[in-house]
Amino acid sequence: MPERLHQFPPLAGLCARADAQRGGQPVETCAAVLHRLAYVAQRVAIMTAAWLPSTPEWEVKQALAFHGWIDAQHAAWLYARIAEMREPPPAMHDIPDTRLEAALDEAGAAASTLDRVSVMYGVVRPAFQHAVAEYRRRTHPIADQPSVRLMAAIEHDYEAIAAWSERALAVEREAGGEERLAGHVAAWLDAAGGVDGHATRPAREPKRRAAARYEPAVVPRRDARFSGLFDTSTPADVAYLDESRDPAERNAALMFKRVREMDVPEVIAGIIAERWMAARNAVREGAPPAGPDWTYYVHLFRQMWDEARHAMLGEILLEHHGVDWRRLPINMTFSYKLARHCTPVERHILLYAIEQSLMPKTTGKPYEHRIAVESGDSLSALFHDFDWADEVLHVEVARRCLKPELPGGLGEARARADALWQRLGETLEKEPLPRDDPHRAALADWWTFYVRKVTGHDPAPVRDTHVKDWRPNSG
């Protein structure tokens, strides 16, 4: 019996003894490769944010929001691991290889959805994934076990990304996407020796095509399936607060408010992209690195994904009730007016004001959850339960990210918010929102059509509303 106790697996089950006795990369090499991986993860995350507002296709916006949050976390994990490896940890603006920077600049210049899909999912992500696998193969499984565990976590996340990217690339090929930009980016990655720098480099570099300055495109776009992009009515914001209405009608209002939330990740993506690009442009022009560190961006990427997820929950609810949500005016007036008329910090202040308005029990997220419960819609109740939890987190995100940006902290944010709403309303009086093309105008009396579809009866009349007068919980 005692002899059998000596047969437990050795080395914590991490690897066979033979594998443990082979060599591996030294710490200096590991840290250098990890820096390249962290840098690529950071740049890919920023690409998702830079592309999300101007990518018209709803499904691609959803994927960019999800994958961007994953990428942001990967970058944070990798930077944290480098800090454990004796070498001086790099800052987010430190460039491991100018050719790698050039490759990612060329990738980020993709302007069409087909180019963006082919470059990101057909070139950059596969190259990153290959470098992660190579790192695991080259490093020692026990000496560098924390890195090996990190690589396994990244590979697991990439399995989720692959489930979407394979189908997306098939759509791109069927749509006749051109591969010239993808080939150009691949050539630049070759010039950098691959993501990890280990591959043989060609004698000559490709020509640069990307602009020298980063210029984010933050004005939102939606594809041809959508109508009423600049519809100015806000009946859902009135109906859900009206306790004289049937709970099913008020729940219908909440479901519409959820699917409309895609405008929030469009705003947050613009904040991320503009802040990062402004900082990088300044560094390129000789200024010292300034602005928030990568932790700031990780928090905002999480909120960006949460808000996109809320829009997905609204989409699911409407489909559950048999509603073709594309026939509804899922407008982008909020993200449009903030992109056109507010700085990134001002946009964040207004988002914070909205989040604060969602906390009271009598009008905020607890109230919305209660409406969903009272309507008898169990799926809506479940979704609004999680929506409430997310919004509590987002108030904390503002404390971590916005408070340090303002000399007066969050008190200053609250004081400035009212003036900003007032300024936006006045600006829209002078510069009205664009008019929808006639073929993309909202359905006449769409609110009645929608509520009737969900509840089986017509809604009570709703007073006239206009987005220029909208304030958090103003109705």
Low-confidence runs: none
Mean pLDDT: 94
**What form results from the Cα inertia axes?**
globular
What is the domain tally?
2
Oligomer: single chain
Number of helices: 17
- For the record, give the distance between the C-alpha atoms at the N and C termini, rounded to a whole number: 76 Å
Textual characterization of the structure:
The chain is an all-alpha fold and 475 residues long. The chain folds into 2 domains: 23-191, Ferritin; 235-469. Helix content is 61%, strand content 0%. The protein has 17 helices and no strands. The chain has helices at 17-20, 27-51, 58-82, 98-108, 113-138, 145-174, 180-191, 235-239, 247-259, 263-284, 294-320, 333-341, 344-357, 365-374, 378-401, 409-430, 446-455. α3 (58-82) runs antiparallel to α6 and α10 (263-284) runs antiparallel to α11.
Concise account of the structure shown:
By secondary structure, the protein is mainly α.
List keywords for this structure.
single chain, 475 residues, mainly alpha, Ferritin, 2 domains, 17 helices, 61% helix, 0% strand, globular
Write the layout of secondary structure elements.
Blueprint: H1 17-20, H2 27-51, H3 58-82, H4 98-108, H5 113-138, H6 145-174, H7 180-191, H8 235-239, H9 247-259, H10 263-284, H11 294-320, H12 333-341, H13 344-357, H14 365-374, H15 378-401, H16 409-430, H17 446-455
Helix pairs in contact: 2-3, 2-4, 2-5, 2-10, 3-6, 3-11, 4-7, 5-6, 5-7, 9-11, 9-14, 9-17, 10-11, 10-12, 10-13, 11-15, 13-15, 13-16, 14-15
